[in-house]
Write a structure and sequence with these properties.
Blueprint (H helix, E strand, L loop, with lengths): L13 E5 L9 E7 L2 E6 L21 H4 E5 L2 E7 L10 E7 L4 E7 L11 H8 L3 E4 L14 E2 L4 E3 L7 E7 L8 E4 L5 H4 L3 E11 L14 E9 L4 E10 L1 H10 L4 E9 L4 E6 L2 E6 L20 E7 L10
Antiparallel strand pairs: 1-18, 2-3, 4-5, 5-6, 6-15, 7-19, 8-17, 8-19, 9-10, 9-13, 11-12, 11-13, 13-16, 14-15, 14-16, 17-18
Length: 323
């Protein structure tokens, strides 16, 4: 074990897969594949969003206000050029920022009754009416069971509490606790907290409760999906297609203007994926590179995965009687 990394994993780059129906009226009329990416192209032929140049200099750092864009109330997408460019891909760190006051998290399992088989994040969203989804955690050879504790209030995928130090907890049963948290077993009393949440997902810690990078340097690297929490209690779905060692990626995440306080690793390599449908657009990012398995940037298809964490819009509070 090197630092907190108890597992070496496998886990795929990014594309905007559909424009809204009225895109032509706005000058956005088609999607075009370029160097493995899919991007909107304007009516005059210019790219609506210019892709990063993997073979050129690192793009300049952007201010936080420009890096984040609102997809809808409570849901923001951030795209940050890495301060440490990778030798493959676009070196972009993508963060989906979720406000728990407006969205609830959902754990979807192929092992649950009526769910059937593994699906891509996009297919999980279509099936369950999710706004976005990301890998829930690494899984075992049966393509069903998580490697560590994973349960909802009605279904247990894996009851085994492993040595991993981080547990994502949501579906709170007690209003005295945050709606979503990442429990750090070195700082928090997990036994006291586990009964206060309906859903628990255990995985490998990346950033500790003390704000420390708990992975040791290593030569192996991969595309990565992760989940974090910021200083305001918002959830961060993290996807990075370009390969980095987890230690280096943690340093990169902590250097971004995202206020990330805690994070856990959920998948790496071709399986790592993030899908979002919001504001009339769909976005899909998949991983590719993994040391010793797929040492290339050639994968552009999402792989079916058995477990994802998604988000759904919360119902607005009922209005009071008219006066």
């Amino acid at each position: 074990m090197i630092g907190d990394q108890a597992h070496v994993v496998r886990g795929r780059g990014g594309r905007l897969v559909r424009a809204p129906a009225g895109a032509a009226a706005a000058g956005l009329v088609m999607t075009v594949a370029v160097a493995g990416l899919v991007m909107l192209v304007a009516a005059d032929g210019a790219p609506a969003l210019a892709p990063a140049r993997p073979d050129g200099p690192a793009p300049p750092a952007r201010k936080e206000a420009k890096a984040w864009r609102a997809l809808e109330p409570g849901l923001d997408l951030g795209e940050f050029p890495s301060p440490r460019p990778s030798d493959r891909g676009d070196s972009i760190v993508r963060l989906l920022r979720v406000d728990p006051a407006r969205f609830d998290l959902r754990l979807m399992n192929a092992s649950a009754s009526g769910q059937g088989r593994p699906l891509t994040a996009k297919a999980w969203c279509a099936r369950a009416g999710l706004v976005a989804a990301i890998n829930a955690s690494m899984y075992q050879i049966d393509h069903r069971t998580s490697v560590s504790l994973m349960k909802t209030g009605t279904h247990t995928n894996n009851s085994r509490l492993s040595k991993d130090r981080a547990i994502l907890a949501f579906d709170r049963l007690d209003a005295s606790v945050p709606p979503v948290t990442i429990i750090d077993r070195d700082c928090d009393d997990f036994e006291a907290l586990r009964g206060r949440y309906g859903t628990l997902v255990q995985s490998i810690r990346m950033i500790s409760c003390k704000g420390r990078n708990v992975w040791s340097p290593q030569p192996r690297r991969w595309s990565t999906a992760a989940i974090g929490r910021d200083a305001q209690g918002r959830v961060l779905f993290v996807h990075v297609r370009s390969p980095y060692s987890t230690h280096d990626l943690i340093d990169i995440l902590m250097a971004l203007p995202a206020g990330i306080e805690r994070a856990l690793y959920v998948e790496g390599g071709p399986e790592a994926q993030l899908y979002v449908t919001s504001g009339g657009r769909e976005y899909e990012w998949v991983g590719s590179y993994e040391s010793g398995f797929n040492e290339d940037d050639d994968n552009h298809a999402a792989w079916p995965v058995p477990n994802v964490i998604g988000i759904v819009r919360r119902a607005p509070p009922p209005k009071g009687p008219a006066r």
